[in-house]
Specification:
Layout (H helix, E strand, L loop, with lengths): L37 E5 L10 H10 L4 E4 L6 H8 L8 E11 L9 E7 L6 H27 L21 H10 L6 H9 L14 H10 L3 E4 L9 H9 L4 E6 L4 H13 L3 E5 L9 H5 L6 H20 L1
Parallel strand pairs: 1-2, 2-3, 5-6, 6-7
Antiparallel strand pairs: 3-4, 4-5
Length: 323
């Protein structure tokens, strides 16, 4: 892999695009669903979710979750707000988390991105915060450009964004624009808005700028965190790519992802086992289509996932201390 990690060489045939269905309908609950005490992938209003951090924690605890990671895009704001502000509304373990949408130019993936989750970073790490701030700046530029493009193609959403404080980084993501498109009558759901209007190939699509996979992985590891590739259903057909990412520091693969069919969980899990990768899992809850309780009914993340993540975070912290 080249130093910027933007152009891995894997050209294998893809399975389902990893961007599909993240904000849409969840699969029907199974006999194994709804019993998860672990959820390692959620979002709040500090990025592109709909709940305040305190509301999400309260809802997760009520659903039986005891280990939670808030993985807002490009920010640890929710973690700081809850932990440093002593605002935790329930006795639940909150793991520092983040999601970074990394550019992966040259790979045949949905929108040319790999989503890298990070767990256990030092929330005081200034270099990590500077890297995230740069990502948020790029997100803001994309947000503003997308709103302008939609205005130019006859789908203005400015009035439906008037309630948002655009001086803050909160909610400056495409899901917020998708919700504005729904309010304006241009889309029927967030998923519909992405599929027809602001996703790749749509009239309102604007390309992302920011970190590549190597930069994202390096930043997470330097802050003492554990980097994990999110909702990568393509894993069975992209093993060469995964090997490249492991070489540059990727540790885990999100196996127990709420939108994966059981056969996909099995296939991605087999890859994680083969490559000796940490398996994680979560709901990717945003809140557009259901309450957290309803989403949790479709979630099954084994308790062992949380235990192994703790081990990986301890190893990452030790490695950082020795650096």
């Amino acid at each position: 892999m080249r130093s910027d990690a933007h152009s891995p060489r894997s050209e294998a045939k893809l399975r389902e695009p990893s961007a599909r269905g993240r904000h849409g309908r969840r699969p029907a609950p199974t006999a194994a669903s709804g019993v998860s005490a672990v959820d390692l992938h959620t979002h709040t209003l500090r990025s592109d979710g709909v709940l305040q951090p305190v509301e999400l924690v309260r809802a997760a605890a009520a659903a039986g979750v005891t280990t939670l990671a808030i993985t807002d895009h490009d920010t640890l704001a929710a973690y700081r707000e809850l932990i440093l502000g002593r605002a935790m509304p329930a006795p639940i373990e909150l793991i520092p988390g983040v999601e970074i949408n990394a550019l992966a130019k040259g790979i045949p993936l949905a929108e040319g991105e790999l989503h890298i989750l990070g767990f256990g970073m030092d929330h005081h790490d200034e270099a990590f915060e500077a890297a995230l701030a740069k990502q948020r700046s790029a997100r803001r530029i994309r947000f503003e450009r997308t709103v302008g493009v939609l205005r130019d193609v006859g789908m203005p959403v400015d009035v439906h964004l008037a309630h948002i404080d655009l001086a803050r980084d909160d909610a400056l993501g495409r899901p917020t624009i998708a919700r504005a498109l729904i309010a304006g009558g241009h889309a029927t759901s967030v998923e519909d808005a992405f599929r027809r209007l602001i996703g790749w190939g749509g009239p309102g699509y604007v390309a992302r700028e920011g970190m590549g996979p190597r930069e994202a992985i390096d930043a997470i590891r330097a802050a003492g965190g554990v980097p994990v590739l999110a909702h990568f259903s393509e894993a069975p057909d992209q093993v060469p790519l995964l090997r490249e990412l492991i070489e540059i520091g990727l540790v885990g693969l999100e196996v127990h992802y709420i939108s994966f069919a059981p056969e996909t969980v099995a296939a991605v899990g087999a890859v994680a086992a083969e490559l000796r990768m940490l398996a994680t899992g979560g709901s990717d809850y945003h809140g557009d289509t259901s309450t957290y309780a309803d989403a949790h009914e479709s979630l099954h993340v084994p308790d062992t996932v949380g235990n192994r993540l703790h081990e990986a975070m301890a190893a990452a912290a030790h490695r950082r201390g020795d650096a």
